[in-house]
Every structure is written in structure tokens, then in C-alpha cells.
Design a protein that fits this description.
Blueprint (H helix, E strand, L loop, with lengths): L1 H12 L6 H11 L3 H15 L4 H31 L5 H4 L17 H16 L1 H20 L5 H38 L4
């Protein structure tokens, strides 16, 4: 499996450096700002987008689920990183690196876990926006392979963690609903919802 992962990485990353415009786009896409900030803006939009009070409340609870899923996914990645360290591809292979060189474990990808955690949760409450965010999370993840900072298996494992955590968070949402209702009431009193 590791051999196939390395081969796929080398094939995708081997394209880096051949088309300068594509390199620049990939560098923008894999940055810690462009797609993560757009996802944050999408959550803000989802918070306010619906004029219907019941649908808006459902979206707002979806925002809480998305943020919880992102945080828990990152936490699980942190635990896995504490138990297992995988060097970055540029440390072990002849990779074309187009981005800064992170020093933490490559496996699983925290960026993929966080982005897919948000995207999958949003998909569960707003299909169109969720599909867009899943597309953005996929672009972000693929660009991290292209730029030489993650193996494909790192991305896949981060996405799987996010999917599992999001499904568990959605199941746990019903247990936390009384607390969320109180929080929502306070937020409405403060005119933030």
C-alpha cells in the first residue's frame, strides 16, 4: 500500500514545475488562507442566509455541527500524530516542493480533516453549499499533494476521519440539542442570529 501511495504521489507531484500557471494556482489553493477563509465565510453566510426562522435555525445548528466536527477531526488527527509519525514526502522522496515545508507528521492530513469536517457537516444541512465546500476541500487536498507536502493516503485518511467524526457529531447533536437551544436563545437576545 505504501508503494502505491508513493507512486501516486510521485505521479501527481511530478506535474509540479512543468506549468508555472498551474503551480501558482496550486500554491494559492493549498495555502492556509484562501480555501479555509472561504469556508469560514460560507459558514457565516449559512448562519444568516435563510429568511425563514425554522430553516435558519437548522442552518445555524449545522454551523455548530460543522465547527464541532472540524475541531474534533483536528483533535483525532492530533492523537494519531502523537502515536505515529510519518515523514513528509519531501523528506523521503525527490519531491517538487512548491510550498513551505511543514515539520509535523504527514499522516493523517490535518488540513484535509478540518476542511472535510466542515464540508460534510454543511452538506448535511444545505446540499448546494455542501457540494461546493466538498469541491473546495477536494481542491485544497489535491493541491497539497501537487505541491509536495502530503501523500494521497494522508489526504484520504484525513477525509475519512472527518466523515466518521461528522457522522458521530450529527448523532450526538440530538443529545446536545437542549444546550444548543439555550445557546441559540442567548445569541438571539444578543441580536447575533
Amino acid at each position: 500500500m505504501a508503494y502505491a501511495d508513493e507512486r501516486l504521489f510521485l505521479w501527481i507531484n511530478g506535474l509540479a514545475g512543468s506549468i508555472p500557471v498551474l503551480d501558482q494556482i496550486a500554491t494559492w489553493l493549498c495555502s492556509d488562507y484562501l480555501i479555509p477563509v472561504n469556508m469560514a465565510l460560507a459558514l457565516i453566510m449559512l448562519w444568516f442566509i435563510e429568511p425563514n426562522r425554522i430553516a435558519r435555525e437548522r442552518h445555524q445548528i449545522g454551523v455548530f455541527v460543522a465547527l464541532t466536527s472540524m475541531a474534533l477531526s483536528s483533535f483525532f488527527v492530533f492523537i494519531v500524530n502523537a502515536l505515529y509519525f510519518r515523514p513528509r514526502p519531501f523528506e523521503t522522496l525527490d519531491a517538487n516542493v512548491l510550498f513551505y515545508k511543514p515539520t509535523d507528521s504527514s499522516f493523517p492530513s490535518n488540513a484535509a480533516a478540518a476542511m472535510f469536517g466542515i464540508a460534510i457537516a454543511v452538506f448535511c444541512v444545505h446540499r448546494k453549499m455542501g457540494i461546493l465546500l466538498i469541491f473546495l476541500a477536494s481542491l485544497h487536498s489535491l493541491s497539497r499533494i501537487y505541491t509536495g507536502i502530503h501523500y494521497p493516503l494522508d489526504i484520504l485518511s484525513g477525509a475519512v476521519i472527518a466523515i466518521v467524526v461528522t457522522m458521530l457529531t450529527l448523532q450526538g447533536r440530538n443529545l446536545l440539542m437542549p444546550i444548543l437551544k439555550v445557546v441559540m436563545k442567548i445569541i438571539r437576545i444578543l441580536c447575533l442570529a
